[in-house]
Design goal:
Blueprint lengths: L10 E6 L3 E6 L8 E5 L3 E4 L19 E2 L7 E2 L2 H21 L7 H20 L5 H4 L10 H18 L8 H14 E5 L5 E6 L7 E2 L5 E6 L2 E6 L10 E2 L8 H12 L6 H5 L3 H4 L11 H22 L5 H16 L7 H16 L3 H18 L5 H16 L3 H18 L5 H13 L1
Helix pairs in contact: 2-4, 2-5, 4-5, 9-10, 9-11, 10-11, 11-12, 12-13, 13-14, 14-15
Length: 437
């Protein structure tokens, strides 16, 4: 049996037919039970969250201590600062030297930390090969031209910002490492699924994908925790979803091919049982012709792509909201409100309204989203619990306390399974609820 760091037993590694390596359980697990917890091999906090979260342990605190040299990194205390120094020293003097020109991507920052960790491991063990990273899939030969150009730019940034403090491997090895991180990296998210940082968990990366996942990955500080969302019996493979499961089968598999270089053949992908509900068309006295539906599908997918491309641009919230509203009007002539493309644009509009502090409009979108989300996502979905949390906090902000408490309770039902009943998020939520009850 393979020993997994942080494991509580009952797991083994095996060769999964058609998928390569995988994990399976050797004893029964119940819904909500922890399979294992995995510390990050390496992780990096998003630049946007600096000052709100500790760089080392990812704890959210009001009064964090600032690094005295660069004035950019923040820590809970001297212990956390010392714990992070072997990684932070790669950036500390560089940030001071480059000032506003210091701009490596989050992936480049993570790769730099991986290289520093590998160097430390090599010095301690005397071994050239670090299995925990070396065994991860890279698909470097499958990368398309656009991704290859991005990797080349990442490598150039690595040389520019880190070569003074880090011995970099040759170009080929760097290409492999960037491809490994792209395929195996995990986004650490908070309770509302906001991006906090990126990490590598080699043990969790062993888990294969299914659109009918048996487990869910959540985060406790910088550790990943894997819990059952289905009852599991000995011999069952441990399966997570690599992607957002809201979308229809073709969209899901396009995303899997683009990012992970495979096509899913789970029961849901074979049966496409939810596709009709996900692509629901508005009921009219005269049925809408198929070519009209097909044209609107193309329009919807094009709009989603265009919105994603524009989303990173600063100070265009009003333009983005207008784009959401216009697309909802266009699609609404053909699609039902529960159609996933309608839901996608409503979700984006809700997020923009929250940023613009327009709580009433955000609530209006959120209330339209919740019921279809609950029907289209699997049970114990974080997408659903995060929507209840967002709505609950919006209700509370408008002093609609009973509605807020109701939304929080529904979020907790999911989170107690996905995060575990003792998670800090649940503790804080109970405190908030007690205050208003």
């Amino acid at each position: 049996m393979m020993q997994i760091k942080g494991s509580i037993g009952g797991l083994e590694r095996f060769d999964s037919p058609g998928k390569g390596r995988g994990l399976r359980v050797t004893r029964p697990f119940k819904v909500g039970e922890l399979l294992f917890s995995s510390p990050a091999y390496a992780c990096v906090l998003s630049v946007k969250e600096r000052g709100c979260y500790c760089e080392f342990c990812f704890t959210r605190k009001e009064s964090l201590a600032r690094c005295g040299k660069c004035k950019k990194a923040f820590y809970c205390n001297a212990k956390c600062q010392k714990g992070d120094w072997s990684f932070h020293k790669l950036e500390c003097s560089a940030m001071t030297a480059f000032r506003e020109n210091w701009c490596p991507s989050e992936i480049s920052r993570l790769v730099a930390r991986i290289l520093a960790k590998k160097k430390t491991q090599k010095e301690r063990s005397g071994s050239e090969k670090i299995l925990t990273i070396g065994e991860m899939q890279s698909h470097v030969e499958d990368v398309d031209n656009e991704r290859r150009e991005m990797n080349e730019a990442e490598i150039a940034a690595l040389h520019r910002f880190y070569s003074k403090h880090l011995e970099l491997p040759d170009h080929k090895d760097l290409l492999t490492l960037f491809s490994q991180v792209a395929c195996n990296g995990f986004t650490i998210e908070d309770d509302e699924l906001s991006h906090l940082g990126t990490a590598i968990y080699p043990d969790v990366a062993l888990i294969n994908h299914s659109c009918l996942p048996s487990v869910i990955v959540t985060y406790n500080g910088t550790s990943a925790e894997v819990r059952a969302v289905q009852d599991m019996k000995p011999g069952d493979e441990v399966l997570i979803s690599y992607i957002d499961l809201l979308y229809p089968t073709d969209d899901r598999n396009n995303r899997l091919r683009e990012t992970y270089y495979f096509t899913c053949d789970c029961k849901e992908c074979k049966s496409k049982s939810k596709d009709n509900a996900k692509l629901k068309v508005r009921k009219q006295s005269d049925p809408i012709e198929q070519d009209v539906i097909s044209n609107m599908m193309r329009y919807a997918r094009k709009t989603v792509r265009e919105f994603r491309a524009l989303k990173g641009i600063k100070n265009i919230l009003h333009e983005l909201l207008e784009m959401c509203e216009q697309s909802l009007e266009e699609m609404g002539a053909v699609f039902d409100d529960s159609n996933v493309y309608m839901l996608h644009m409503m979700y984006q509009a809700m997020g923009i309204c929250i940023h613009m502090q327009d709580a009433d409009s955000a609530i209006r979108y959120g209330e339209k989203i919740l019921k279809p989300y609950s029907q289209l996502y699997p049970p114990y979905s974080l997408n659903v619990s995060s929507m209840y949390l967002k709505l609950g906090r919006l209700y509370m902000g408008l002093e609609r306390y009973s509605m807020g408490i109701s939304a929080f309770k529904k979020a907790m039902t999911i989170m107690e399974v996905a995060h575990g009943k003792d998670h800090l998020y649940l503790t804080e939520l109970r405190k908030d609820m007690d205050f208003f009850m």
